[in-house]
Amino acid sequence: MPFAQQQPDNPRRPPTRSSTTTRRVTLLELFFDLVYVVALALISRGLAEEINWHQAGQALILLAAVWWTWTITSLVTDLYDPERTEIKALVLAVMFGVLLMASAIPKAFGDRGLTFAGAYVAIHLGRGLFIIPAVRNDPQVQRRAARIFCWFTLSAVPWIGGAFVSEDARMVLWLLALGLDYLGLRLSYPVPGLGSVPASLFRLTAEHLAERYQQFYTIALGDAILVTGIAYTTNHSELEDAGALLLAFATTLLLWRIYVHKAGELLPVAIKVMKKPTHFLGTSPYTHLVMVAGVVTTAAGFEVMLHTPTLPAPTPPEWTAIMLGGPALFLVGRALFEHEVFNRVSWSRPGGVVALMAVAPATLFLPSLTAGLAALLVLAGVALADLRHTRNRPPEAPMPP
């Protein structure tokens, strides 16, 4: 059978998806994701350099901003035709903007705040200014783009304003801006006089969008491996560090296994069988953010562990918090994700969180490697519980709420 010839772009047709648009992720989208490896690695390393609640709050703000550029771009390539020339150009422009944001991450709460916030705002407003005229031949789609543009225009005020104030005030303003951005999608971008975006205008392509979320989670695991490898090359005792490296790799493997087990594999089917496919947009961007935050925090814990694998002194409380808190945060997100797909939560998820909290006090009196080992054993227990639950049982069908 001969290969299908790609139809030339028709400038009169809006660049929206059609029945002939590919349902698979394009190579350009995979290329686009590469810039996020840099962003996530810089956030992880910044968190490991100075572990305290203030730094953790800043890391969460930076991660949430970076994540939202990816989430909305993935939604754009799902609603529009990623093979159209104009959408390809848009994706490349966003990629450059994210690279600019990533370069500013180490000093985003210092003298490069305007670079970070300006790039973020330019990405979202520039996308709207690009799409609105591009879909002028489809009034409904144009109104959808206009509603989204209005919300990002509103959040641009605290984003840019935050770049000109003190560090603490910047955190407050940027949290406000993120709240507006995240709430906008949750509420379907209501605008006075225009109303909310109708559910019919969010026609999701299950295979494409599910694959995009699976791929970004894989990118987050790539961050863990990258941070681990860099930390390993900078240390001195190869034998001691090899044990910590093996522990970090095994933990990363378990984070992958627990994610893909059933819920991660069946996400495309779950989106298809949802009574309201738009329900996915109201849950998955947030559940995946929690899981990714857990992986990024765990990666920061890897760096701490590799730098001090056999300290004779007790583990500092902040190190215990990051090394056990990362896996705990991942399990919380994974429980929410499981409820999203199956409308239930396995006992092993909250049980794993309780176990991590229970062993935390003991690790305070032991070397830092002990906290990493405790996290590994808890995650291994969760993975084994998953395997036991599904062994010799028929495949479970997704039952989203």
List keywords for this structure.
13 helices, I/LWEQ domain, 401 residues, mainly alpha
Q: Can you tell me about this structure?
A:
With 401 residues, the chain is mainly α. It folds into 2 domains: 175 residues, no CATH class; 185 residues, Up-down Bundle (I/LWEQ domain). Helices cover 73% and strands 0% of the residues. Helix 1 crosses helix 10. The longest helix has 29 residues. It is globular, with a radius of gyration of 22 Å. The N terminus is likely disordered.
Strand and helix map with partners:
Layout (H helix, E strand, L loop, with lengths): L26 H23 L3 H27 L5 H20 L8 H22 L4 H24 L4 H20 L19 H28 L4 H27 L2 H7 L5 H29 L9 H26 L5 H16 L4 H23 L11
Helix pairs in contact: 1-2, 1-3, 1-7, 1-10, 2-3, 2-6, 3-4, 4-5, 5-6, 7-8, 7-9, 7-10, 8-10, 8-11, 8-13, 10-11, 11-12, 11-13, 12-13
Secondary-structure element string: HHHHHHHHHHHHH
Q: Structural class of the secondary elements?
A: mainly alpha
**Main β-sheet: number of strands, strand sense, barrel status?**
none
Q: Structurally, how many domains make up the residues?
A: 2
- CATH topology category name of the largest domain: I/LWEQ domain
Question: Can you identify the CATH class of the largest domain?
Answer: Mainly Alpha
Q: Could you tell me how far the N terminus lies from the C terminus, measured between alpha carbons in angstroms? A: 42 Å
Content of β-strand: under 5%
